[in-house]
Here is the input.
Amino acid sequence: MLQYILWLTLIKGIGPATVKRLLGHFSDPREVYDAGYEDLLEVKGIGHFAATSLATARSLQEAESILERCTRAI
Here is the structure.
């Protein structure tokens, strides 16, 4: 689940207020990841730019790489 939260924070143009709106609308970060463009537009305050950014950023590779490095550093 942590990788999905990290994924959200890595998307260009998606700040803390937008993350809060998304997590208030969807039940968990995985649902945000799985949401389609039209579903994202239903979230109050989410416009076309943010919905497009979210819908096209469907890779967890960077988030998982960061988590792996953090785990090794402990």
Summary: The longest helix spans residues 61-73. DSSP finds six helices and no strands in the chain.
